Amino acid sequence: MDKLCPLLLQTPLTLHPKPRTTSPTCSFSLNLTHASLDNIPVSIDIPASSSPLPSSIHGFYEIKTLDSLKAKHAQMVKVSKSASMAKDLITYYLQFGDVKSAGVVFLVGLVRNYAVWSSFLEELESTGGDPHDVLEVFGELNSKGVVFDSKVITVILKICTVVMDLWLGLEIHAMLMKRGFDMDVYLKSALIYFYWRCRGVECANKVFHEMPHPEDLLWNETIMLNLKSERWVKAFELFRGMQFSYAKPNGGTIVKMLQACGKVQALKEGKQIHGYVLKVGLESNTRVCSSLISMYSRNDKIELSRRVFDSMNDCNLSSWNSIITSYAALGYLNDAWNLFQQMEFSDAKPDIITWNCLLSGHALLGLYKEVLILFHRMQSIGFSPNSSSITSALQAVIELGLSNYGKEIHGYVIRKGLDYDVYVGTSLVDMYVKNNVLENARSYFDSMPNRNIFAWNSLISGYVIKGLFDDAKVLLNQMEEKGIEPDSVTWNVLVSGYSVWGHTEEALAVIDHMKIVGCTPSVISWTALISGCSQRGKYKDSLEFFIQMQQEGVKPNCATISSLLQTCGGLSLLRKGEEIHCLSLKSAFLEDVYVSTAVVDMYINSGNLGSALKVFEQTRNKTVASWNCMIMGFATYNLGKESISLFDEMLETGIFPDTITFTAVLSGCKNSGLVEEGWKYFDSMSRQYNIRPTIQHYTCMVDLLGRAGYLDEAWDFIQKMPINPDSTIWSSFLGSCKTHQNVDLGEIAAKKLFELEPYDSSNYVLMMNLYAMSNRWEDRERLKDIMDVRGVKVGHVWSWIEIGQTVHLFSGEEKPHQDEAEVFFELYQLVSEMKKLGYVPHIKCVYQNIDDIEKEKFLLSHTEKLAITYGLIKTKSSEPIRVIKNTRMCSDCHTAAKYMSLVRSREIFVRDGARFHHFKDGKCSCNDYW
């Protein structure tokens, strides 16, 4: 105890005021003047056997003023000393607002019963009385020499705890130690709780450990306080110490310990507690068994949960709900439903909690349609959804984008008065924000009776997502004016929004501001910045911010790694991607399915399909996103049959396809010219899988039919589409018209494109090239004049190759490469060797009205030829060449690359914006279909 109150123990017995360093309004000295108590009659030592008298006999109905009450009090002290009389006096004093007089009666005039103390504090609160006045009365009576027993001191300590009066509590502790006060277990408990609340769990633990022989109650309460403070290791240590001290934990402590074992994944400790439960015969305690079920399921041991449940002789409603929740939370929905059906035939019928377990289980697995079906079914049999049901349903609405259905749920919430639940209110705001109905989100937010930080953050994120940063700032200011301090989520939302919208400097400014206000930027903050840059295509910035993040000592997490892999894939930086792959292995990030999927995607986009497939095959617990990524990978490399084969394999594993799956499969069909297969999978979407085709699926079909030469069928398909064709549809169709030199249909597609995207230069270039291929030079020049009038500029064409982690760019518009002379010299020699093997330049790929000799020279300047040649010069003969190009390869470069792979015996990978071409031994993986 000396360690806690070293200064207080040196003061005299009469306590004096201490400096008010903690709470000036909450600290009272025990040495106060007597004047304030002079007019209050004091009745002391009422015996416990006093007969209570009815209030009517006491004559309180005649009391009209405070003075008459005091007179009646003085009269009654001479006549009677009943506990009932004292309680009536307290009630009347409180009603007249005289808390001090009530406090005097409370402290010296009542039976020493903890129930009476509790009722007094409740009555004090209900009448608006100030507990500080009771503490002041206690100090005055103590200074008059009134000696209080442990029960009074216990209640005073509890009041000190409630009002956070640290100094008075410390003085009382010192007084107890000096007087050698014999503290009962309740006073010790109050002392421990006081230190926990006012000084923290460490001080509470010190008080506990300095008690010579702590009773069972103190062990249990100290363990509970450590659990509340999330001091898991200390709580486990105390629980073990309790066993060695032959103290007994109560059922509540065991339940909370098991909950902690589930929360922190402490399976070993949970099993030990289970052993203790069996040892002391608590296996029949349904609360304990329900906690065991939850503990094992949270540690992914559902079979052990089931064994506990099956061993129970008396399964109550809580037990059934625990086991059903366990199965549902881990994704075993069939087992959960089987148990639900068994429960309906048991004595414990399903209740609203049971239904909520099933709702949340389906939501966790992403079965959002089923969530809404269950939501309806629950209501149809008479269960009224509560706040938990509503939040699950709103989550499904968010994911399915059913804003109208969300409005119906909103109406139900208002009718049932559930909008007072802050979580329901926040979910409604979030639903409107994520369904892009920001006006409704703001309207409801302004009418919310209760708003927490989550509601503010949700609405701010809504403005940020739309790029309305000025509105977000206004809302942020209003939030601070209401006394709600922005938290890390608030700042991270702003960082993410600014970076996604390309405002990198503003995002960095927010990170700097976080440091100023004492909110240290975490890995989430930096990841938001890195991810935003990756999504915006600012890959170089994202890599630089990752370096800066490491310099500031912040370690990456799985989300950071996924964003970095996206960056490497976007830039096709294979070497850097391999480094991050190694980092993922060392840090065990690859066990995360999202990281492993990001690694697969990185290898696909960096031209290494073999490594992508290897990582994919090693990935455990593949999600539909994992399968989609690999199926699209095969499609990107023109391996349509492999895409279909992998799709079939996915179905065999029980994974249900989504819209992205069919986009990937149809992409594989169109890239490989598999027309019949494409029709088959397109038709099966709605008929077999109940998936409505989107614009992406229609685009794939138009591209598939057009590239295969079925232009009339593609045109008919566009005309019969149930949704309006967008620019991607017309662009695909125009590309097919160019491939098959159909000017008439091409002009129709071009006209639509010029209306939809009047400033996109690629549309004009496609049509001009079609005119050039058809020798319609006047039409080509006319289109060029239209571009000039509209101010449409043709984008730069470039290709680049990474050698030794240095990127080498080749572009007709940029500064010439430093080794350009060497590249052209090597390229001339290559072309000479290629011609001996049969290479003939495709001069029709030059869409300029110049002679054939000039066209052949012009073909040599195509950027992909230069990049491939540079790779042949600067890399080892066994190393594949990997080139990235921002536009589609022309047929001449495609033919030249095949001959280059044959002449130099090298593998060449070219990514041309839409797909990969893998050249080897004079052949391409696309089989000349691209």
Topology:
Blueprint: H1 55-58, H2 66-79, H3 83-95, H4 99-108, H5 114-126, H6 131-143, H7 150-163, H8 166-179, H9 185-199, H10 201-209, H11 216-228, H12 232-244, H13 251-263, H14 267-279, H15 286-298, H16 302-311, H17 317-329, H18 333-344, H19 352-364, H20 368-380, H21 387-400, H22 403-415, H23 422-434, H24 438-447, H25 453-465, H26 469-481, H27 488-500, H28 504-516, H29 523-536, H30 539-551, H31 558-571, H32 574-586, H33 593-605, H34 609-618, H35 624-636, H36 640-652, H37 659-672, H38 675-689, H39 695-707, H40 711-719, H41 727-739, H42 743-756, H43 761-773, H44 777-790, E1 798-803, E2 806-811, H45 820-836, H46 852-860, H47 863-874, E3 881-885, H48 891-903, E4 908-911, E5 916-920, E6 923-924
Parallel strand pairs: 3-4
Antiparallel strand pairs: 1-2, 1-3, 4-5, 5-6
Quick structural summary:
This protein has 930 residues and is mainly alpha-helical. Helices cover 65% and strands 3% of the residues.
Could you describe the 3D structure shown?
There is one protein chain. By secondary structure, the protein is mainly alpha-helical. It has eight domains: 64-115, no CATH class; 250-349, Serine Threonine Protein Phosphatase 5, Tetratricopeptide repeat; 351-421; 452-555, Serine Threonine Protein Phosphatase 5, Tetratricopeptide repeat (Alpha Horseshoe); 556-621; 623-684, no CATH class; 694-795, Alpha Horseshoe (Serine Threonine Protein Phosphatase 5, Tetratricopeptide repeat); 798-924, no CATH class. Helices cover 65% and strands 3% of the residues. It has a six-stranded mixed β-sheet with strand order 2-1-3-4-5-6, covered by helices on one side. Helix 36 (640-652) runs antiparallel to helix 37. The termini are far apart.
